[in-house]
Amino acid sequence: TWLGARWALVSILSGSVLCALVLRYFLIILSGGLEEDFIAWGLKNYFGGITGGYLGAAKTLADTGVYTLYGYPPGYAAFVAILHKFGLGEPTEIRLVQAGLDALGCLIAYWLAARMFKSRVAGLVPAGLYAVMPLWTFGAGAMLAEAFSPLFLLSVLALMWRFKERASWPRALAIGLVIAVAALFRPDLILLMGPAGLWVIWHAFRKPWAPMAALVAGFAILILPWGLFNLHHNGKFRVTGAAGFYGLWTGVGQAPN
After folding, report:
1. Pairwise CA distance, residues 223 & 232, whole Å
2. Angle ∠(49,99,149) on CA atoms, nearest 5
């Protein structure tokens, strides 16, 4: 029956989210979750100095409202600072919150695929894959801004598909806002403005000006303050991080581990 099929769908989708949570939880425990000094563990096992910088900047931001980690966009540190305000300041607590948020990516993956292929059953496949793929299950618990990249990318794709279904300036504005937030975590995600702009023009080709203006405005309203902050503190208008050469795109891959 229709009701039975719906309950089966909800059960499978809920199972995917639960599976995602369980896998991420165990990987967090296995990767330094029980260590007394997570930063020391991080320095030994990955580029943990960045994590220490984020934690220090987040605590300062939470306590004083001042951002001090000038070389990196403020998104991740601001996220950790908010958790500090709610009494969640330990690395394992922060990582578990990240894992919980990332598990919601299963729902976005389901929605996007179900809309694209016009099949709810088809949506279950990417939802399940998102739950178990090793790169995402491990990355969700990393105390790095990159932990949020998959969730941001999925969110932008879902909003772009919504725009395709009905082109309007509020939907274009939402795309720009989410890309800006993503870029304040990981500056390489600024590049999403390119395909997003082409997408908006293509699907609003008769009257593209209002949606394009909304897309750019949504992006600029959040990213420009970061550029002005850098201009004031560093003398350079910069809307990315301070990483040079290919480190801007590869994150910590430029440095030896």
Report:
1. 15
2. 65
Burial string for 9-21 (b: 16+ CB within 10 Å, else e) reads beebbeebbebbb
Q: How far apart are CA 109 and CA 22, in angstroms?
A: 18
Q: Which of 32, 241, 62, 240 has the alpha carbon at shortest distance from 143?
A: 32
Task: For residue range 198-243, list pLDDT tens digits in order.
Answer: 999 999 988 899 999 999 999 999 999 999 998 888 888 888 877 6
212-243: string of b/e by CB count within 10 Å (b at 16+)?
A: bebbbebbeebbeebeebbeeeeeeebbbbbb
Cβ atoms within 10 A of the Cβ of 94, count? 23
Per-residue pLDDT at 247:
55
Name the residue among 222, 179, 221 with its Cα closest to residue 200: 179
Residues counted in the chain: 257
